[in-house]
Amino acid sequence: MSTTDDAEGRPSRAQDNSLTNDDLPVPVTLTSADRVEIDYIAPPTALSSYITTVYHFRCEENVIRDIQPAAIGQLNLFPYGQGEMHFPDGKRDPSNAVNLLTPLSFAAPFVVDGPFHAIGAVLSPLGWAALTGLHAAEHTNRLYRASDWLGPEIERIGLTACENYRTGDKTAAECGAILCDYIGENLGRVPPRHEELIQQTVKWLGGALNPDLDDLYATVGYSERQAQRLVERYFGLSPLALRRKYRALRSVALLSLPNLTPEFEANVRDAFYDQSHMIREFRLFAGRTPARLNDDESPFLMEVLDQKNFREIDPLMPEE
């Protein structure tokens, strides 16, 4: 196995936003996937650059325990269920009826008193920037009350949608459409050059499991220092750390595919220095070790790592 993070093939820790915690506070027992139902709702085509997918999650257990992999931002509703998300620095954020989940740099365990139903819109990096205007790196690893950052309108709209869902007056798809309408009506302007940098960064990430940093700097039209600052602003991590995060999440997604050939699996494993390096990276970003990727206790893992949430991964995916 190999990696290009430093001269010896090991991940550099001097430039990676301190992504070094290998001991996440993982719940002892996770809720079994057979207790969970997840449906996907297609977002409006006009918002496809801003919303990757809309999901409807439900579990009727009294207590739900799982791990949210290092994800991009989300705007979501919890019509049923209340809990908290745990972060590696010891911080714990309580859930709200209307939540803004910021881009995550680590996998984050959570516990919810059920039953638990969630309806969410997953935001692309461009969608996060256009909707929130927040610096992703300064707000990383948080579960916010959405109205604290988006204003009182989202609280009013979200609480009404939750109540209508509970009474049966609105379906999950209709509540998802309400979220999409809100997002579409409240998108701010991202400077065109910054939008181009976001697009080029996504394209760069999709080119390989270990894309060359120089390739990114050569295409974005900014100095290396400027590019690093802007990538942190819109993605929440430096380019080096972002590459680590996406390498791990994509590798988990690929190794979970039932049709993966031995040759393609070998290519994925060769993206890491050795087996222990791969295990550490999987645990850090996905909250799982390779041995547990296909167990029956990974509903949120599979939801986040589904191909529909990695549209830029398509060139790396093996053919069906």
Outline the fold blueprint.
Blueprint: E1 36-41, E2 51-59, E3 63-68, E4 74-86, E5 92-94, E6 98-101, E7 108-123, H1 125-132, E8 143-145, H2 147-150, H3 152-167, H4 172-185, H5 192-205, H6 213-219, H7 224-235, H8 239-255, H9 262-269, H10 275-286, H11 299-305
Antiparallel strand pairs: 1-2, 2-7, 3-7, 4-5, 4-6, 4-7, 6-8
Helix pairs in contact: 3-4, 5-7, 8-10
CATH class of the largest domain: Mainly Beta
Distance between the termini: 26 Å
- Along the chain, the helix and strand elements come as EEEEEEEHEHHHHHHHHHH
Number of strands: 8
CATH architecture of the largest domain: Sandwich
Helicity range: 25-40%
pLDDT < 50 stretches:
6-23, 311-315
In CATH terms, the superfamily of the largest domain is Jelly Rolls
Oligomeric state of the chains present here? single chain
Q: Structural class, from secondary structure content? A: alpha+beta
Number of domain units = 2
Portion in beta strands: 15-25%
Indicate the overall shape.
Answer: globular
CATH fold naming of the largest domain:
Jelly Rolls
Largest sheet: 8 strands, antiparallel
- Rg calc: 19 Å
Number of helices: 11
Mean pLDDT: 84
What does this protein look like?
The protein is α+β, with helices and mostly antiparallel strands and 320 residues long. The protein folds into 2 domains: 33-185, Jelly Rolls (Sandwich); 192-316, Arc Repressor Mutant, subunit A, CATH 1.10.10. Helices cover 37% and strands 19% of the residues. It has 11 helices and 8 strands. The chain has helices at 125-132, 147-150, 152-167, 172-185, 192-205, 213-219, 224-235, 239-255, 262-269, 275-286, 299-305, and strands at 36-41, 51-59, 63-68, 74-86, 92-94, 98-101, 108-123, 143-145. Strands 1, 2, 3, 4, 5, 6, 7 and 8 form an 8-stranded antiparallel beta sheet that branches. Strand 4 (74-86) and strand 5 (92-94) form a beta hairpin. The longest helix is centred in the C-terminal third of the chain and has 17 residues, at 239-255. It is globular. The two termini are 26 Å apart.
